[in-house]
Amino acid sequence: MRLKPHVSSLALLAAMLATALPAAAQQTTLDVLRITAAGLTPFEEQEIGRSYTVIDSETLEVTKAAYVADVLRTVPGFAVSQMGSKGGMTQVRVRGAEGNHVLVLIDGVPVSEHSTGEFDFGRLAVANIERIEILRGPQSAFWGANAMAGVINIVTKSGGSDGLHGSLGAEFGTDGTKMTTGSLEYGQDNFQASGSLTLRDTDGFNIAAVGDELDGATHIDANARFKADITPYLTLDGTVRYGRLIADTDEQDDFTGIVKDALYQSKVNELYGATGLGWVSEDGLWFQNARVSASTLERQSTDQYGEAVNTGDRYKATYQIGRHFDTPGFLDATHTVTLGYDLVHETFQKLVPTKLDVQRRTTHSLVGEYRGTYLDQIFLTAALRHDFNDAFSDVTTYSVSGAWEIPDIGTRLHASVGTGSTNPTFIEQFGFTPALFIPNPNLLPETSFGWDVGVQQSLLDGMVVLDATYFNQTLENVIATEGWPLSTVINRTGTSTRQGVELSASVNVFEGLTAGVTYTYVDARQPNGTQEIRRPRHSGSVNLAYTFADIPLTLHSEVVLTGENPDTDFGTFSRVMIPAYAVVNGGFNYQVSDQVEVYGRVHNLFDTKYQEVYGFNTQGRTFYAGARAKF
Q: What is the pLDDT, as a whole number, of residue 14?
């Protein structure tokens, strides 16, 4: 099933949207949700003026997706590009930006790689994730560099408050997949702790156009976290995560661009940890937070150029102090003012032919945030940040956003405006490779200005929730690679533009049946007006789930639609257009008892032949079956 141009994708999306929206039933209003990635302190969702998506634990439990990248394909404004099999380099681009323009956090710890400045989603499993918080648009004023296009904050599961609990699970697939998961949770009134381990191995499929070799991957994900109330006003928390990936890769010929079988591998070892201390005054007006985190990531790869090894370390310390206060005589307003300081120290080691090259850089940042609520319906947020960089020029960023929840009619207006920055990567500044690449230590940070405006409408007592957002962002000092076969990097002159529309609808059509629909239009262009690669103009998704009333069975399905997608043929360095496609997934979950659940799912039901990255095959129809027991 290969669709022709993007019109086919849009027609299918429109048809399914027309089917889903008219149905009616009963849905309660949205629960109050605390979003930790929205600013220096947590937000309730109605307070957020920026465009956001939250993928909660219930959604993750229904779909049983194995990797976070598979979940992100349905998020408005997102484009996911995976180079072949599971474990292959997987990039996420938000609103037409580059992969290193979105900041990725796991339990608040930055996890982007020093070599590329982005996080490789090909290695992150869904198991033990509680929710995924996503904010679109410039967030650098809150989170610093590399939050130019948004923030993805992944929150792992925490312990409960009623003793010891655990789970064990196993999954098998027709692509030789074997997965085992286990978790433990413990909680009491003033202490919570949790830990999990996921082991996944797959034979994969042949990612190359030439040959028949299977390209598999082995993953290990382990994490633990705790929270302890030392006193009623003082809280200590901590988190640690270990990940390991061994993935088979193939060779892409430099002269033809053809991907062909090769016994190459990519290995990643990563370790992250953080601990924090939070204090609230007895009257609840003053608060302080201090947090330190450390991370290390080593990547080894073998390809036609030989073996490459690099290691990146990041150390971050944060301190915040803030105060809440009210002005009841002025619009019944409540206010929060927060001041903060961040220190980030990074090191990068790269093995070059004759020595181990070590580079370092440090950033000090001052940040302030104001939040105000007026008449219990108008919410304003403003932030200002200045980064003192020792390896390149300093950067000042700001953000202003607002939301108006109009009473009684279910309408919420939201808008934001702000600036962002993205630092050069260590490879771009210092990553010399003889006869292939010359770095540029004089690069400037990329900077951007962006804004968006939208409306969210709740209908039929919350049964239907619609959201429409227009966004616009300009990017300057674009870092780009030029030259071949000896290349280097420069800051381009001129301005890159990104603009588009994000539409979403969630519907509880009747008791037990839910539906979600998204559509995104993106126009992303280089300074010379050329459309950016791997950013389809049209994309969307449709999700349906039905839980039977009389039997503990849930059926779910998903359609991911992608329009025509430009890419580069690296054999000729010419522009190619990848055809539009639709991928259909589905599955079931059956609750055998309160403790035991069995499930099955199918990926690419109609065995669609498509590509996300030019020259790399994608996975055909594959079946998975699994079971999980709780105690």
A: 36
Cα angle 492, 496, 500 (rounded to 5 degrees) comes to 165
Taking the alpha carbons at both ends of the chain, their separation in whole angstroms is 43
Q: For residue 485, say if its preceding peptide bond is cis, omega within 30 degrees of 0.
A: yes
Is the model's pLDDT at 176 over the cut of 50? yes
Q: How many CA atoms lie within 13 A of 14 on its CB side?
A: 7
Domain chopping of the chain, boundaries = 6-158+265-630
- Side-chain half-sphere CA neighbours of 625 within 13 A: 1
Tokens standing for residue 13? 């999306």
CA-based nearest residue to 84, from 122, 116, 125, 123: 122
Nearest partner of 477 among 465, 462, 489, 461, judged by Cα:
489
The sign one gets for the Cα dihedral 425, 316, 134, 169 is: positive
Buried b or exposed e, range 320-331, using 16+ CB within 10 angstroms? bebebeeeeeee
- φ/ψ (deg, to 5) at 490: -140, 165
Other beta carbons within 10 angstroms of residue 437's beta carbon come to 17
Mean pLDDT value across the chain: 89
Write down the CATH number for the domain with range 6-158+265-630.
Answer: 2.40.170.20
Q: What is the DSSP letter of 46?
A: G
Handedness of CA 22, 24, 29, 33 (dihedral sign): negative
DSSP 59: H
Q: How confident is the model at residue 37 (pLDDT cuts 50, 70, 90)?
A: low
- Report whether pLDDT(354) > 50: yes
pLDDT of 509 reads: 73
β-strand partners of 182:
168, 197
487-491 vs 437-438, strand pairing mode:
parallel
Q: What DSSP string describes 376-412?
A: TTEEEEEEEEEEEESSS--EEEEEEEEEEEETTTTEE
Give the list of residues 6+ apart from residue 443 with CB closer than 8 angstroms, or none. Answer: 392, 424, 428, 429, 479, 489, 490, 491
Q: What is the pTM of this model?
A: 0.91
**Residue 72 CA to its chain's centroid (Å):** 7
Q: Per-residue pLDDT for 243 more than 60?
A: yes
Over residues 527-546, the pLDDT tens digits come to: 999 999 999 999 999 999 99
Q: Are residues 31 and 463 in contact, defined by beta-carbon separation less than 8 angstroms?
A: no
Cβ atoms of 599 and 626 within 8 Å: the answer is yes
Sequence length of the chain is 631
Q: Which two tokens stand for residue 131?
A: 């929710």
Q: Classify residue 541 as exposed, middle or buried by CB count within 10 Å of its CB (0-12, 13-18, 19+).
A: buried
Residue 394 tokens read as 């300093």
Provide the percentage of residues in the chain whose pLDDT is more than 70: 92
Task: Give the pLDDT of residue 511.
Answer: 83
442-499 pLDDT per residue, tens: 999 999 999 999 999 999 888 999 999 999 999 999 999 888 778 899 999 999 999 9
